[in-house]
Model the fold of this input.
Amino acid sequence: MLELTILGFLCDTPLHGYELRKRITALTGHVKPVAESTLYPAIKRLENAGLLERTTQPGSVAAPRHVLTLTEEGGRELRRRLAEPAGRDISDENRWFSVLAFLRHLEDPSAQATVLRRRLAFLEEPASFFYDGERPVRAEELDDPFRRGILTIARATSDAELAWLRATLDSLDAAVG
Done:
């Protein structure tokens, strides 16, 4: 997820590490804040793989700043990751938001629709946070108001996402022809 967000934000515009960290934190920080000890090794791996380049620019007040730019190979890798997200990238809401944040960089509407259909299929599967044996438990079956609250909120969120997915897929399908 971290590498995808790095590639995605650098596809938008070149950034220095501090600004990149702020943007990643704004996208994912409420769930999984990104530490410098995680970010900079990921940047180094992507740089070593030829997916991004680092240039040095004079700092406005202090030390020189290292500006990161996506390479052509980095753009291809971003589009590959967007077109072929891992199963966890579809099923985990936070990872899904990272895919969704940059899906516009996958310019082919039919390829975008393929990714959205995978998420739609995942959401349409019966699921719950709580089970009676193998059977998912619905909110109205619970006596516990707090667990009922979890399921009620999750259902409202899923319903909103399902409606958005279906409308967006209709729009993408119309664009394809």
Notes: Residues 145-176 form the longest helix (32 residues). Residues 67 and 87 are 32 Å apart (CA to CA).
